[in-house]
Amino acid sequence: MTRSSKKGPYVYEKLLKKIEGKKAMEAGVVKTWARDSQIAPEMVGFKFGVHNGRDFIEVLVSEDMVGHRLGEFSPTRKFIKHGGRMQKDLEQKKKEGEIASAQAAKTTTAEAKK
Questions:
Q1: What SS3 class is residue 29?
Q2: Looking only at Cα atoms, what is the longest distance across the chain?
Q3: Cβ contacts of 1-5, under 8 Å, gap ≥ 24
Q4: How far is CA 18 from CA 10, 21, 24, 49, 103, in A?
Q5: Which of these, 4, 33, 50, 104, is most buried using a 10 Å CB contact count?
Q6: DSSP helix/strand/coil, 111
Q7: How does DSSP classify residue 89?
Q8: E strands in the chain
Q9: 80 alpha carbon, distance to own chain's centre
C-alpha cells in the first residue's frame, strides 16, 4: 500500500542529518538499516550501505531512484538456481563438451609444433 498523500513521503531523519553539509562523492559510504526510507532528491550522488539482513550492499543513488525506497535496491534473498535431474544432465553434457574441445585443441597445437 502507498503512503497517504497528506502525510508526505517518509524519509528517515537521521539519514538526512548524516549527509547534511557533505559533498556527494567525498562522503564515502553511509551505512543504514532504514530500508523503508524513501530516497529524497538531497540523497542523489551519495553512496549508501543498505543492510539486507546479513551484510551491507552499496547503493549509489541516482536521479531515477528518487521516490523509491532504499530496500528496493538491496535484495534480501539470493537466487541460486533451479535444479533437478534434467538440469544436472544438461550441465554434465556441457562439461563433457568443454573437455572434449579442450583436448582437441591440445592435440592440434601438439601436431602444429611437430
A1: strand
A2: 82
A3: none
A4: 16, 9, 12, 13, 58
A5: 50
A6: helix
A7: H
A8: 29-32, 47-51, 56-60
A9: 15
For 76-98, write each residue's pLDDT tens digit.
998 877 778 888 888 899 999 99
Cell 554434465, residue located: 92
- Classify domain 13-73 at the CATH class level: alpha beta
Nearest-5° Cα angle at 46, 69 to 36: 20
Q: How far is Cα 97 from Cα 112, in angstroms, rounded to an integer?
A: 23
Cα separation, 82 vs 69, in Å, equals 29
Q: Where are the domains of the chain?
A: 13-73, 80-114
pTM equals: 0.67
Q: What SS3 class is residue 38?
A: strand
